[in-house]
Design the sequence.
């Protein structure tokens, strides 16, 4: 199973950029990199996903290494509402056992006012 | 506007007393999922429905069952809750299996 490794936690200051790393050295060619986040007492929320190229949306940017063995979720200006657990998840586009959301421990982001 | 609605937000039941949690969606998605999230742990998939086809995860206890009477609703039935079943139960939907999942706010179950 392709797996991801994330630091346990990270702290950031409000209104500063945040870079959340994720390692996935055993990623396969058909694995998409997905990021979800879970705010306190809420269900997880989709953030962004990508395959090879960097991706941007209204919430964040996803930078994917050229060898695809790592990626970074970028929050351009952290707010207090961004404090959450961020999960980096690989999903196999072909289907099968690796096509579901398998949550790891995630990284807990704290944002200082 | 909530798109995946879970009721109730908090549920208390007694040890061994059957309990049902409900989930409804306004997205008209084909797939509905149930996850269990214990305290300080990551969500864990219990099962999912693709339309009317039920797919159980291999390690989901028999104590947990699900019903999907129509596209909009899905229920999680716990036949005989034990203390270890106290958790947050999350419902999610997606248009198809590999698509983005939309989660409800969850139901926190306490077992006394």
Sequence:
């Amino acid at each position: 199973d392709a797996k991801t490794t994330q630091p346990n936690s990270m702290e950031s200051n409000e209104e500063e950029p945040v870079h959340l790393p994720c390692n996935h050295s055993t990623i396969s060619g058909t694995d998409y990199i997905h990021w979800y986040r879970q705010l306190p007492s809420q269900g997880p929320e989709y953030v962004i996903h990508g395959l090879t190229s960097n991706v941007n949306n209204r919430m964040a940017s996803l930078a994917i290494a050229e060898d695809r063995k790592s990626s970074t979720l970028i929050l351009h200006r952290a707010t207090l509402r961004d404090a959450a657990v961020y999960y980096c998840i690989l999903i196999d586009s072909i289907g099968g056992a690796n096509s579901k959301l398998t949550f790891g421990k995630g990284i807990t982001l704290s944002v200082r006012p | 506007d909530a798109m995946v609605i879970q009721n109730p937000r908090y549920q208390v039941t007694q040890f061994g007393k059957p309990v049902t949690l409900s989930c409804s969606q306004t997205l008209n998605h084909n797939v509905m999922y149930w996850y269990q999230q214990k305290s300080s742990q990551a969500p864990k998939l219990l099962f999912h429905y693709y339309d009317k086809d039920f797919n159980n995860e291999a390690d989901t206890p028999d104590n947990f069952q699900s019903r999907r009477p129509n596209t909009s609703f899905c229920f999680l039935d716990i036949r005989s809750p034990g203390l270890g079943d106290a958790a947050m139960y999350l419902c999610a939907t997606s248009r198809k299996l590999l698509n983005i999942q939309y989660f409800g706010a969850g139901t926190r179950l306490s077992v006394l």
